[in-house]
Design goal:
Number of domains: 1
Strand content: under 5%
Radius of gyration: 18 Å
CATH class: Mainly Alpha
Structural class: mainly alpha
Number of helices: 3
Largest sheet: none
CATH architecture: Orthogonal Bundle
Oligomer: single chain
Helix content: over 70%
């Protein structure tokens, strides 16, 4: 197996996307701050984008469809970051903490 031809195999990209997804889910479960959870969510978005691009490159007949879908995912991620950061700033102003376990008054 030559290392120069690893980029021609879809399995490499799919395994990398699965690893990113696992890291993101682990981060969501283990992070204790809202910022860490936000970063983990972005890693999950990156895994989804990599998966879509790999499937698009190796299996789809139209190369632009996957690229447009990834651009949509990136726009969705940017909107999620903007909204989440504004919520985190508002929570910090009211409670002086961004630890989710200390925000007991927000429970319904």
């Amino acid at each position: 197996m030559n290392l120069l031809y690893l980029h021609d195999r879809p399995g490499i990209y799919l395994v990398l996307a699965a690893c990113l997804l696992a890291i993101g889910i682990f981060g969501l479960l283990r992070r204790r701050t809202l910022i860490g959870m936000l970063i983990s969510g972005e890693i999950i978005f990156a895994a989804a984008s990599l998966n879509v691009m790999a499937v698009n490159r190796f299996f789809a007949p139209d190369p632009t469809a996957g690229q447009i879908f990834v651009l949509f995912i990136m726009g969705l991620a940017a909107a999620e970051v903007a909204i989440a950061l504004s919520i985190i700033i508002a929570v910090y102003r009211n409670y002086r903490s961004i630890a989710p376990q200390e925000l007991t008054e927000l429970k319904g």
